[in-house]
Design brief:
CATH architecture of the largest domain: 2-Layer Sandwich
GO molecular function, one term: 3'(2'),5'-bisphosphate nucleotidase activity
CATH class of the largest domain: Alpha Beta
EC number: 3.1.3.7
Function: Converts adenosine-3',5'-bisphosphate (PAP) to AMP.
Number of domains: 2
Membrane topology: Peripheral membrane protein
Number of helices: 8
Strand order of the largest sheet: 3-4-5-6-7-8-9
Distance between the termini: 46 Å
Family: Belongs to the inositol monophosphatase superfamily. CysQ family.
Helix content: 25-40%
Number of strands: 16
Length: about 280
């Protein structure tokens, strides 16, 4: 199997995401982050827009035949519904964390084919940690999940659940782990600990075996989840709806996701059963 770190497609994506991180971190050091409000009242900064331009130019040069759907470059459903393959990009996932300057934000790039995320790359500019997941070989990329930091590169996978169960919770969007679900988990495990983080970091920590579960009951968009879903699935996990169905992308007029959770196959039945009791 080819070393993914030496594959030209990965190297090109790595350069694109590193270049985007450089412009983000340049703006991160400034006193004025260039904050504005979008029509949905969510914040956007100069870093979101600058990273979008870098990524868009890089992807168009790498794959001129594959269109790009970005949080900062939304396309009508009438146009994108005819795209069997597309890049889905969040140039700055965790804008609220960026504004708070807590370092918990990421860059997300996913390649989607017929609704399925087959390649995902997530990069954390403040820690220089990068994650890549390939669920279906594309242009010779090896299937699997990997992490890099600097020149170090390693394969990653989910861990088997064990005490204490680590639950990733949202830094800005809450709520915390429901008490009755926590009680259910404690029937099988003595300790359940909650660890708040922002952006796609939560899913990546599960993919690399640091945590076990993330429950998201607030709004997200397709660019928030596509890249991490590919990484999580490549690492042996699942990002699924409350009924256990994986998300599919660019299939609807809306780009908003419903509720979802991230876990491995061992914890998933307990979470699905908990959701059923909420109906």
């Amino acid at each position: 199997m080819q070393d993914i770190s030496k594959h030209p497609i990965f190297q090109a994506l790595q350069k694109i995401i590193h270049d985007a991180a450089d412009v983000i971190m340049d703006i991160y050091q400034r006193a004025d982050l260039g904050i504005e409000q979008k029509l949905d009242d969510s914040p956007v900064t100069a870093a979101d827009l600058a990273a979008h331009k870098v990524i868009l130019a890089g992807l168009q040069a790498l794959t001129p035949d594959i269109p790009v759907l970005s949080e900062e470059g939304v396309v009508s459903f009438e146009e994108r519904s005819g795209w069997p393959m597309l890049w889905i990009v969040d140039p700055l996932d965790g804008t609220k964390e960026f504004i708070k300057r807590n370092g918990e934000f990421s860059i997300n790039i996913a390649l989607v084919e017929n609704g399925v995320p087959i390649l995902g790359v997530v990069y954390l500019p403040t820690t220089s940690e990068g994650y890549v997941g390939v669920t279906e070989s594309w242009k010779g990329l090896p299937v699997g999940a990997f992490k890099w930091q600097g020149n170090e590169f390693e394969s990653i996978k989910l861990r088997d659940p064990r005490d204490p169960i680590i639950v990733m919770t949202s830094r800005s969007h809450g709520p915390a782990l429901p008490a009755d679900l926590k009680a259910t988990l404690k029937l099988a495990y003595e300790q359940v600990r909650e660890l708040p983080k922002g952006s796609s970091i939560k899913g990546c920590r599960i993919a690399e075996g640091i945590a076990d579960l993330h429950l998201r009951r607030g709004p997200t968009s397709e660019w928030d989840t596509a890249a991490q879903q590919a990484i999580i699935e490549a690492a042996g996990g699942m990002l699924v709806t409350p009924t256990g169905q994986p998300f599919r992308y660019n299939q609807r007029k809306t780009l908003l996701n419903g509720h979802f959770f991230v876990s491995g196959p061992e914890l998933a039945p307990s979470v699905i059963d908990w959701y059923k009791k909420q109906d």
